[in-house]
Backbone:
């Protein structure tokens, strides 16, 4: 089996498994919606204030929702031993990790991206910024999954991995948050956004090439 | 085997490290006391007061070296992580994990002194200044490393997992730093007073450099003490440790 075939097969398998547990796809979305609903309740429903904050709030909520789902990248495969079989297989582990991360993003990141404009409307974001919001999430959320995969790979063997995972991963999410929210802010005030989007794309290229390798070596350590 | 590898392997042997660090410690401590006393006296007494900030500028003799150390120790840890992962040298692991709490403390000191200085100068304990924010994120990364190391039960995989995380961090720290700098300039034009302006006077600079050396020596001393303890704990069963403590 060629590497590409193995990649596709693993991707298909993970997607099929995810489709069998649809509730798990819906829960992070529900969390995303709830966090956004909490903000107007907390800071007050002034349209101006909410509109100013909308870019940052949507991005922070997306980031937290992404963090919440990270554990599922490797957890169930670790528990039933599939992960060890992947480690033993002849295919390069970093490519296998990439397949799992892509599947994870398709199941958790993509729905987030589709719901985001609706929630941005709730916060009164200008419709001119919607396209940029989608585009920045499209470039940014895969980076979140990729960086997160390293954190999950490091903590997969631990019993209380959740809190430690967020400690490890959140500081690394800062650049994505900064440029993602800044792109949307700039679009809302009618400024050019190409620079911010290019930087997000650069983050994505870098994470795509480096994170699977780091996650693979972390997995080898966690399972040794 | 070239001389570099020989050097690494020599230092990588726990008994050698233990013996040589034991011989070096008194000398390092002596130098540390000298540089510290000179730096403090010259900085707090001899150096003239700043014409704008008065005496409160003197906090830089603690603040600036601590901030430097926050970065410097991370670089040491990253180098140790590479050595540990590539050549499986045990001492590198010990150095890495002995350094992490010291680095976190220095980052914390830099933040606390920065905010103490900020109160009279900027009129607020905390501003989202780019350098303060990235120092805070550096502290979070240190704490993550410490948390991961204490969470993994198996000593060996704890060391290697920590090394991987340290390297992930070292790729990210410059990105985080420049992102924060960019973010800050976007959100607010910085109008607060800065230390630059006229270049720093020599009678202010020398104590600062002396303090920087003192802080580095302090780090080496504390790191060696922690590493020696860690080595003894790990090698309790080996012969040289038994001979050393005079047990059976």
Residues:
């Amino acid at each position: 089996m060629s590497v590409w075939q193995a990649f596709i097969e693993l991707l298909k398998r993970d997607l099929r498994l995810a489709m069998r547990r649809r509730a798990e796809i819906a829960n992070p979305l529900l969390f995303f919606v709830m966090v956004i609903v909490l903000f107007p309740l907390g800071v007050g429903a002034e349209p101006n204030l909410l509109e100013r904050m909308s870019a940052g709030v949507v991005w922070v909520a997306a980031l937290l929702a992404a963090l919440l789902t990270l554990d599922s990248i490797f957890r169930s495969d670790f528990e039933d031993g599939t992960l060890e079989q992947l480690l033993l297989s002849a295919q390069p582990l970093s490519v296998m990790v990439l397949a799992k991360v892509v599947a994870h993003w398709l199941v958790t990141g993509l729905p987030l991206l589709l719901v985001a404009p609706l929630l941005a409307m709730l916060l009164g974001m200008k419709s001119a910024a919607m396209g940029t919001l989608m585009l920045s999430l499209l470039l940014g959320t895969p980076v979140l999954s990729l960086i997160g995969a390293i954190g999950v790979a490091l903590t997969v063997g631990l019993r209380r991995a959740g809190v430690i995972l967020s400690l490890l991963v959140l500081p690394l999410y800062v650049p994505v948050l900064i440029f993602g929210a800044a792109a949307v802010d700039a679009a809302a005030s009618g400024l050019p956004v190409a620079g911010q989007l290019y930087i997000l794309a650069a983050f994505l290229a870098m994470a795509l090439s480096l994170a699977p390798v780091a996650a693979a070596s972390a997995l080898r350590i966690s399972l040794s | 085997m070239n001389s570099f590898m020989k050097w690494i392997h020599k230092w990588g042997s726990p008994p050698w490290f233990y013996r040589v660090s034991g011989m070096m410690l008194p000398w390092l401590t002596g130098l540390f006391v000298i540089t510290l006393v000179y730096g403090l006296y010259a900085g707090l007494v001899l150096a003239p007061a700043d014409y704008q900030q008065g005496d409160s500028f003197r906090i830089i003799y603690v603040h600036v070296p601590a901030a430097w150390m926050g970065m410097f120790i991370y670089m040491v840890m990253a180098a140790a992580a590479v050595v540990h992962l590539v050549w499986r040298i045990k001492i590198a692991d010990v150095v890495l994990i002995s350094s992490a709490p010291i680095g976190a403390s220095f980052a914390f000191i830099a933040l606390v002194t920065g905010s103490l200085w900020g109160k009279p100068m900027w009129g607020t304990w905390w501003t989202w200044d780019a350098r303060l924010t990235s120092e805070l994120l550096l502290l979070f990364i240190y704490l993550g490393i410490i948390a991961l190391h204490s969470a993994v039960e198996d000593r060996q995989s704890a060391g290697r997992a920590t090394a991987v995380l340290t390297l992930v961090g070292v790729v990210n720290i410059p990105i985080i730093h420049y992102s924060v700098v960019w973010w800050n300039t976007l959100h607010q034009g910085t109008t607060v007073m800065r230390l630059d302006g006229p270049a720093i006077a020599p009678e202010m600079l020398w104590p600062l450099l002396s303090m920087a050396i003192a802080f580095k020596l302090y780090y080496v001393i504390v790191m060696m003490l922690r590493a020696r303890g860690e080595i003894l704990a790990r090698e309790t069963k080996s012969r040289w440790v038994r001979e050393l403590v005079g047990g059976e």
Chain A has a mean pLDDT of 90. Chain A touches chain B through 25 residues (CB under 8 Å). The CA atoms of residues 113 and 165 of chain A lie 23 Å apart.
